[in-house]
Design brief:
Layout (H helix, E strand, L loop, with lengths): L7 E3 L5 E6 L12 E7 L2 E7 L12 H4 L1 H5 L9 E2 L11 E2 L2 H19 L4 E5 L5 H12 L5 E3 L8 H11 L5 E2 L19 E5 L3 H4 L8 H7 L3 E5 L13 E3 L6 H15 L4 H7 E2 L1 H8 L4 H8 L3 H13 L3 E5 L9 H14 L9 E2 L6 H8 L6 H4 L9 H4 L7 H10 L7 E5 L12 H8 L4 E6 L4 H6 L2 E4 L8 E4 L9 E4 L11 H12 L17 H16 L6 H7 L34 E2 L3 H5 L27 E5 L15 H6 L4 E4 L1 H6 L7 E5 L4 E8 L7 E4 L44 E8 L6
Parallel strand pairs: 7-8, 7-16, 10-11, 10-14, 11-12, 13-21, 16-17, 17-18, 22-26, 23-25
Antiparallel strand pairs: 1-2, 2-3, 3-4, 5-6, 5-18, 9-15, 19-20, 22-27, 23-26, 24-25, 24-27
Protein name: Dehydrogenase
Keywords: Iron, Iron-sulfur, Metal-binding
Pfam families: Molybdopterin (PF00384), Molydop_binding (PF01568)
């Protein structure tokens, strides 16, 4: 069977095979594994990797392989539910109908809009899932509120990297060139295999972060690529022969970047032609980098000076150099400077939009562009009321959301106005996912008068504050489009084809289509229920296809043509490298980058206009034994957190038996020497604590950690435990984010220290006993 063309086949044994591309739910970023969904009599039998997909070639992650368990999990909610507000925290949910839920919720929305203004409604959204496209639309053009909130302190995921790319590079997210956009893959004549890839603060094999197919690192290593891993831990890729590990002290990466840059300037080992032509502020940058001599930086970062020199020499002289930059850039108060320095380093290495280096995309396309256009549904005076927008222009220019920390302050103080209604879409932030200081959020959320939750299973967040629960469909249960980087850099795009229906679950786009048709029909024209019907499933199915056909118009195809095509790769449709030379990046069609100066801004005009230093600099983290010497005795260790595992996506999958078996308990990784010093042996329960809070984990004693540095799991709760208040499925027991301060962010409003706070650790008897 050729790839695409036939997207659904009935087999001789009566099973139906539907080709598809994965997104979420279950949780994952838009990595788009090509898969075959095998169903029989409308029931999911299994997921298989699709060998014909040229990028993923049959590979698929554990969470999708467990989709059958996830789909039919006893705790999955498959009908709309409601609960009296006075019963929040109690398991007193009752089933309701979509008709009733639509009627009541729309009445409530109109009430809050008319009584307090649409800005009194706030939508809370989580990460990277398909829902990310639709919760912006839900907020702006369905509910018509300016307040869309991603609650992670300092917006510390992806948003900073994207905004900095817009501000200093003038292009969408620069992604490692792994030939995903080229139909010929690694063999495509346009492609060059990178000599080295710098994998920096990212662990793409388990994470596949932001739509990057992490397994390509294995492919490339087989083709001869070597890896420079910049990570406090030795990761799987770092551990391979010939690869280099810079085991940096958490949160000191910006000093390291500046030292590498300084060495390159000193030796002249960099792409001078590119730098002279395309870097704005090159001389200022050289002067700033000179403030970071290698010996001083070796001391700050804990990385050997000779290793830093070796890496600077490789980056300066080997070609091509590929780059993968990850979450550690965002979860850092100094991360804005790190991202800026990273972009300059990649430019000095001649990697920008060149084969085997980094690819660039236009600022936004397709669904990504559409979701931003939804802002137009609000009058200007409403948009101006977006929480934190005026105080944090450095954040609110790049991001269409509220400033997260400011949102908690608003909920606590009712200033500048009170928030009355909440809508959780793909967010379970009381678990140690998005929020820092989750108990403060928990308390503040209780003030909301009406709360809707859109999710798949009963979560601690839904149990604590939900009044209505709308049940969601998995990717195998609805039609859709997966596109990497939400259109900011579309390496490829694939159709998700509906293969089955479970209960009355609906997808995020269907929720928008249904509520949009009622609340703002001029913006939501697609769904046309037959006269007298409020829920018309046939009309809804047509609406989804029409919506996607409209989206695909700019590519010259409709939904049916796209699903037959099976995969869209820009390389088959006129993709070009070095777009800055060809006038393909700027809105005015001139050569150059889409920044104010038309160049890559090592000296950022925008940073300067927002009161930030225009050049990158290093700043010691606020909560380290060095910056807080008075607390160094009490909290002598540093903990990072959140490195991903194959078997869960944040707080998701803790209830899926086969995945829980792989990773049964929250863990803290400790170096053997440090463990011995604290009387801890492998498998012991420990409490990690600091001046902000405490959380419990099982010790994993391992030499991948350096002495004095810990690494804790995030996203833990215990679905098997009592879900009612105050236990809430044990959500406070292993909640790493209790240790993370509120509002410890950079000057632009970005970056918080989820990946580096000072702490101490002690052995305890169990999760519950001292
Ligand atoms: N299976 C699975 N996949 C996921 C997720 C999940 O929960 N589970 N979450 C998704 C989400 S939302 C995201 S944002 C991505 C994130 O995925 P990635 O960008 O890969 O980030 P992490 O896995 O959090 O951390 C990457 C590495 O950073 C290292 N690190 C920690 N502190 C520092 C530091 O200060 N400096 C440096 N240089 N490195 C540091 C860690 O040791 C880790 O190896 O993953 C996505 N994919
Ligand atoms: N300490 C520490 N904390 C961290 C991190 C860290 O590294 N360290 N990482 C942070 C990062 S990068 C992020 S992005 C956040 C993630 O934070 P969140 O995105 O809030 O992650 P979850 O808690 O998994 O919540 C997502 C919820 O959405 C539901 N869901 C899944 N798919 C869909 C869908 O398609 N539609 C809808 N409507 N619902 C869906 C899931 O069942 C789940 O309940 O966590 C952050 N928290
Ligand atoms: Mo994230």
């Amino acid at each position: 069977m050729a790839y695409g063309k036939q997207w659904q086949t009935v087999m001789e044994d009566g099973t139906v095979v539907t080709r598809s591309n994965t997104w979420s739910p279950p949780g994952s970023h838009p990595v788009g594994y090509g898969v075959k969904v095998v169903t029989k009599d409308g029931e999911l039998v299994r997921i298989e990797g699709d060998d014909d997909n040229p990028i993923t070639t049959g590979r698929v992650n554990a969470m999708n392989l467990a989709l059958r368990e996830y789909t039919y999990a006893p705790s999955r909610i498959i009908h709309p539910m409601k609960r009296n507000p006075e019963d929040r925290g109690k398991d007193k949910w009752v089933q309701t109908t979509w008709d009733e839920a639509l009627d009541t919720i729309c009445d409530k929305v109109r009430y809050f809009q008319n009584t307090y203004g649409p800005e009194s409604i706030v939508v809370f959204g989580g990460t990277g899932r398909e829902a990310c496209i639709f919760y912006y639309a839900l907020t702006f053009s369905v509910l018509q509120s300016p307040n869309c909130c991603y609650t992670q302190s300092g917006w510390s995921c992806y948003g900073p990297r994207c905004s900095i790319s817009d501000y200093v590079l003038g292009a969408g997210y620069p992604e490692l060139d792994y030939a995903g956009h080229l139909p010929g893959s690694y063999q495509d004549p346009r492609y060059t295999v990178p000599k080295w890839i710098v994998v920096w603060g990212k662990e793409p094999l388990p994470s596949n972060g932001d739509g990057f197919f992490g397994h390509c690192l294995v492919d490339l290593m087989k083709l001869g690529t070597k890896i420079i891993s910049i990570d406090p831990r030795i990761t799987w890729v770092g551990a391979h022969d010939g690869n280099i590990n810079l085991q940096v002290r958490p949160q000191t990466d910006t000093a390291l970047a500046l030292a590498i840059m300084n060495l390159m300037f000193e030796t002249g080992e960099y792409d001078q032609e590119f730098a002279e032509k395309w870097i704005y502020g090159l001389d200022d940058m050289k002067a700033r980098a000179a403030e970071y001599p290698v010996d001083k930086v070796a001391e700050i970062t804990g990385v050997d000076a000779e290793d830093i020199k070796r890496v600077a020499h490789i980056i300066g002289t080997e070609r091509p150099i590929g780059w993968a930059w990850g979450l550690a850039f965002d979860q850092n108060k100094n991360g804005v400077q790190l991202s800026q320095a990273f972009i300059v380093l990649a430019a000095l290495a001649g990697s920008i939009d060149r084969p085997g280096g980094l690819t660039l995309g236009p600022p936004s396309a397709l669904l990504g562009k559409w979701r931003m256009e939804q802002r137009g549904a609000m009058a200007d005076d409403v948009w101006q009321k977006r929480i934190g927008a005026a105080a944090w222009p450095g954040l609110s220019t790049g991001m269409a959301t509220t400033q997260p920390d400011e949102t908690l302050n608003t909920m606590e103080t009712d200033q500048p106005y009170a928030l009355k209604m909440g809508w959780f879409n793909s967010s379970n932030f009381l678990t140690p996912t998005c929020s820092a200081q989750p108990k403060r959020w928990h308390k503040a959320l209780q003030k909301l008068e009406f709360v809707v939750v859109q999710d798949l299973t009963m979560t601690p967040t839904a149990m604590a504050v939900g009044d209505y629960f709308l049940p969601m469909a998995t990717w195998a249960e609805h039609n859709g489009i997966v596109l990497t980087h939400y259109g900011r850099n579309t390496v490829f795009m694939g159709p998700m084809n509906k293969a089955l229906q479970v209960g009355e679950c609906k997808s995020d786009v269907e929720i928008c289509l249904m509520f949009g048709q009622r609340l703002n029909p001029s913006w939501w024209p697609w769904y046309k229920p037959a006269d007298g019907k409020s829920l018309d499933l046939d009309a809804l199915a047509v609406a989804v296809e029409d919506f996607y056909s409209d989206q695909l118009k700019e590519l010259g195809m409709d939904w049916n043509q796209f699903r037959e095509e099976g995969l869209y790769q820009p390389g088959a449709h006129g993709f070009e490298y070095e777009k800055y030379e060809k006038g393909l990046l700027r809105f005015d069609g001139e050569p150059g980058f889409n920044t104010i100066t038309g160049q890559i801004e090592a000296y950022s005009i925008l940073y300067e206009s927002w009161g930030e230093d225009p050049l990158p600099y290093y700043e010691e983290p606020n909560y380290s034994p060095i910056s807080k010497p008075d607390f160094a005795g009490q909290y002598p260790l540093i903990t990072t957190s959140g490195s991903r595992r194959y078997s869960s996506f944040h707080s998701e999958h803790r209830h899926v038996p086969s995945l829980r078996q792989i990773d049964p308990w929250p863990w803290v990784q400790i170096n053997p020497e440090t463990a011995a010093e604290y009387g801890i042996t492998d498998g012991d329960w420990c409490e990690v604590y600091n001046m902000f809070g405490e959380a419990r984990f099982k010790a994993e004693v391992t030499p991948v950690m350096k002495p004095g540095i810990l690494n804790c799991a995030h996203g833990w709760w215990f679905p098997e435990q009592d879900g009612e208040e105050p236990n809430l499925f044990g959500v406070w027991k292993s909640n790493f984010n209790s240790l993370v301060p509120h509002f410890n962010v950079g000057k632009l409003g970005f970056g918080a220290p989820y990946k580096g706070v000072m702490c101490n650790v002690r052995r305890v008897r169990s999760l519950d006993q001292d």
